Amino acid sequence: MLQKHHWSAEIIIAVGKRLVQAQFLGGNHAKAIILCKAICYNLRRVHGALDAKSLEMSELLSQLYTEVNHHADAMGVHEKILRLVVEGDDDDDNTLDTMDAATAKRHLLLLKQTYLRLRAWDKQPKMYKDLVDQLINMPAYKSHPEFKGVQSTDKWSLKDKPELMGTFIPPVEWEFANPLSLEETGGDGAKTPSAVSRHRLGLRRITSNWGMNIHLLGQSDGYDDMPSPKN
Question: Where are the domains of the chain?
């Protein structure tokens, strides 16, 4: 009897990430951002905002914002992440309330890059200074080697030029798994006739909550049937 595929979180996220990247590189910037936001929302609900999988997609969202010069939106992504580090994600014991020093520093530096690109703060400067100061002085980070030399926002200068960090870089490799490894075999070791078809159906199921009607292997992708996003 054939068994249903059990898609790992890594495969599901990889599919979503590639969909976002393909949409964006195809010029559908607004649709790619909407899709990325939807995936981020679902990952936060399931794993918490500070889970590595959620952070990966949140950083991609920030990169997309940066690419279309929505620097205030990119700033908001990293501000919210750092605020959750300082204040705690939520009251759910199953989700993370903090992150390692290297990751915290990374999002602090990404916040700085959005500031340099926007050439201003999106909100009151004191709010960002207070947030960064709290982060720097957290016991987990205050004496950590990763935070050596990290400065508060009043030391950040708009004379500095933005770096490549935080920008969207197209993937070099698009493959994330060997489709043949996901096919099922019969008792004699031969691939079952419906394996590829079930593979396609599995991808349709896991992307259905993202508002996508994905079709594989030369079929229509269904993107043209989506309503145009509002700007």
Answer: 9-175, 178-224
